[in-house]
Amino acid sequence: MKVAVVGATGLVGGTMIKILEERKFPVTELLPVASDKSAGRNVHFHGKPCKIITLEESVSRNPQLALFSAGGAVSLEWAPKFAATGTTVIDNSSAWRMDNSKKLVVPEVNASVLTKDDKIIANPNCSTIQMVVALNPLHKRYRLKRIVVSTYQAVTGTGQKGVTQLLNERRGDKSKGTYPHPIDLNVLPHIDVFLENDYTKEEMKMVNETIKIIGDKAIRVTATTVRVPVTGGHSESINAEFEKDFDLGEVRKLLSESEGIILADDPKENVYPMPIHSEGRDEVFVGRVRRDESQPRTLNMWVVSDNLRKGAATNAVQIAEYLLKSKLL
Fold it and tell me: Is 234 among the residues known to form the active site?
């Protein structure tokens, strides 16, 4: 199994390589791919150096699998070139997510939509992934009607440049960074660009991707996405209205028994999900589960996950694992 990781020097790309190692994905040859200026440098895989190569060289070496995390422009240009040689591409950018001809996949939710003909598969947005993992078992039982979500997203979602700005500001360096305002000791209700409807692109990703992944156009979704001075993971306050009423005991049981979810919900003992607990983990943590007392059939919950892992790299590797297990790769 020859595997290319495109964007190998970035935060997500480096995490992809780490997770391929951790999960013992059957890589016989790793092809780390990055920009021309990084070519010739080494990354390490299973303790051995692997030389970084260019996109042109990696296509010519015909990997069976390519994990992309190098931005939308690179994906739009190069994913089809890989796919044309028979490589299966799993792309972490937003380039293909809303393309009707491409599948948008979270394995715990909708891996069954994949076929052998899917040569470019889209990995969803980090904040969408953790939300649909948490809500899917409840949707199956009670049918989602409306979702109101507010996010508290770590600076790692902006890559190394977001982390650098936060750490520089903590050291007293207030020089201009990647955000339009300081992030340390601050909260920015602004992720990605603002659109004509005054929502940000990140907010509309959560709206549109959720509907596509769950496969129900009747679900209404509204989102406010916020950047916070945290590095360990994204947090979300979710208010979900269902068509059917629910029992809180059954809700907690469903969540605790669902794949990929850890229920951390004992407020009397101060047990609830926090980014410091999710960092370095692949699960989605759910807590603060309670009924919305302002209207019927509505649930409040708090959801936290490591955005570099389950929100990006781990989800991509899990898609590859499903393809392998199902003999689609």
Answer: yes
Low-confidence ranges of the chain (pLDDT < 50): none
Domains of the chain: 2-123+312-325 (3.40.50.720), 127-307 (3.30.360.10)
* pLDDT (0 to 100) of residue 213: 98
Q: Which of 44, 46, 139, 234 is catalytic?
A: 234
The active-site residue out of 126, 139, 181, 190 is 126
Q: Is 126 a catalytic residue?
A: yes
Other Cβ atoms within 10 Å of 3 Cβ, number: 24
Strand ranges in the chain using DSSP code E only, listed in sequence order: 2-6, 29-33, 42-45, 48-51, 65-68, 88-91, 103-104, 120-122, 144-152, 220-224, 234-242, 261-263, 284-291, 298-305
> Tokens in use for 71?
């931005």
